[in-house]
Amino acid sequence: MSADQTQLAFDWSCRILSDNGCGFPAPGLHSFLFKPLATVGGFEFNKVMLLALLTSVLVVAFFWAAFGKAKVVPGKLQLVAEAGYDFVRRGIVYETLGKREGEKWVPLMVSLFFFIWIMNIWSVIPLAQFPVSSVFAYPLVLALLVWVLWIGLTFKRHGFVGFFKNITGYDKSLGAVLPLVMLIEFFSNLLVRPFTHAVRLFANMFAGHLMLVMFTVASWYLLNSWFIPAAGVSFVMSIAMILFELFVQAVQAYVFVLLACSYIQGAVAEHH
Amino acid sequence: MIANLVQLAAEETEQNPLIPAGPELLVGAVAFAIVFFFFWKKLLPNINKVLEERRAAIEGGIEEADAMKVEAQSVLEQYKAQLAEARHEAARLRQEAQEQGATLIAEMRAEGQRQREEIVTAGHAQIDADRKAAASALRQDVGKLATELAGKLVGESLEDHARQSRVIDRFLDELEEKAEATR
Fold first, then answer.
1. Is pLDDT larger for residue B24 or for residue B11?
2. Scanning every residue of chain A, which has its alpha carbon at the shortest distance from the alpha carbon of B14?
């Protein structure tokens, strides 16, 4: 199917109704494991790392081409890039943080959006065919970055006591349940939030990749005698999944950045 | 191949997708840092500057257009005012010309009347004078002729000048009265 079939541990000879005794080579966790492409001083450089770095190159190259020599009267490329930039700036950052507070967060959020989006899009690019964000480390490092910024900003804005009031949702009017609320809020904000922030992106891409692999592998596996129509159905499904994934990839990038903005907004807002 | 699958399946049991690998965290951080660095330091300041310039250009254009509109408005008003003034002036001139014409005609008419009367008066006077001159000349001639005729008829008795003159005058006056009466 693709260049990484050895890493997928996918046996070409396996077909339904064939007599070599093998079953359906279902995708699983092993689909997310890659043999190192190169090992430099004990550092195993794999395909996902390559794609992550290619993401950086691609995003920077595209925006360099578009904005490097930006003109007042834009060309086509600049126009497209401006539309993307404006979408994040106005559609996400200004919407949640307001223009005054949001302005200094624009570079971070724009970087996050396009970095994540392209990491996701690798899922449907021939030869790559693997979403970088389906490896937990990549969403996690971005979620941790947002988390650290959020904590730092909350400290800076509200001081030590204010920080605890902010993250525990301190509200005297709650009365007797206040300790309970504070405990829940503390765990929710400080520990669960960065985890869910990362997992939301990771799990979507992980599941999407599993579905794609399953339908494409099944299309091949079923391509034998009277199962051929089923193989056709599976192939159509894999095409449909590609289209659906394109949608999910954009939505997840959007959601990740939107959440990052809303967390930052919680830090800069006067405590509730 | 089967052996390979079994080996991978064995690894699978130990694999937890939620435990991130250190190197991948590092690569992820570096990859993102590259993107962020370029956006933050170079690309977004670049485009923001251009967007600002564009905004200024558009606003400048609008301001210019506004200024031109105001100017056009003022020119139009000026023009309209001038036009109204010119119309007013023209009307005034026409009125004046009419008045002048009327007075001129009246004056000329009066002058004509005056001249006519003068001429008529002069004519009358001339006629009177001529008539008087003719009358006196005629009177003398007629007197003389009558005297001569009478002298011839009566002889020398009527030679006395005074008497002669008186008689002639009286005769002529009578003639005149008759003429007056018949007129």
1. B24
2. A29
ipTM of the complex: 0.86
Max Cα–Cα distance, chain A, nearest Å: 72
Burial (CB count <10 Å: 0-12, 13-18, 19+), residue A230: middle
pTM: 0.70
Residue A108 at interface with chain B, using a CB cutoff of 8 Å: yes
Tokens 């947002």 sit on residue? A146
User: Which pLDDT value is given to residue A1?
Assistant: 37
Contacting residues of A for B46, CB less than 8 Å apart: 67-68, 70
SS3 for A132-183 is HHHCCHHHHHHHHHHHHHHHHHHHHHHHHHHHHHHHHCCCHHHHHHHHHHHH
Contact A92, A261 (CB under 8 A): yes
Buried b (16+ CB within 10 A) or exposed e, A65-88: ebbeebeeebeeebeebbebbeeb
Residues of A in contact with B18 (CB under 8 A): 136, 199
Domain ranges of chain A: 35-268
Structure tokens at A23: 């079953």
Chain B contact for A147 (CB, 8 A cutoff): no
